[in-house]
Amino acid sequence: MRKDDNYLIIRADHLVREMIELSEEGDVRCVNNGCRVLFAVLRDCAYLCRREIEREKKARVALGTWKE
């Protein structure tokens, strides 16, 4: 594992937070069902990614390679 791998996980986490914020804003501004579907898909993907990020963090903590 390269030393910047944890940084990439942190960046992914920030991206997921932005995706969730964007989906919430999109929900408020949507004017049709197609738009709502788009932002619902974005939110679902963000939560799936978040789950994988948390799983990876726990695995790295167990290995002793995760430091915040």
Percent of residues in beta strands: under 5%
Look at the structure and give the mean pLDDT.
Answer: 93
Main beta-sheet annotation: none
Distance between the amino and carboxyl termini: 16 Å
Helix content: over 70%
Alpha carbon gyration radius: 15 Å
**Low-pLDDT segments, ≥5 res:** none
Number of alpha- plus pi-helical segments: 2
Principal-axes geometry comes out as: elongated
Order of helices and strands: HH
Structural class assignment: mainly alpha
What number of domains? Answer: 1
Question: Would you give an account of this structure?
Answer:
The longest helix is centred in the C-terminal third of the chain and has 31 residues, at 33-63. The protein has helices spanning 5-29, 33-63. With 68 residues, the chain is mainly α. The chain starts with a helix and ends in a 5-residue tail after the last helix.
Write the layout of secondary structure elements.
Layout: H1 5-29, H2 33-63
Helix pairs in contact: 1-2
In short:
The protein has 68 residues and is an all-alpha fold.
Properties at a glance:
68 residues; single chain; mainly alpha; 2 helices
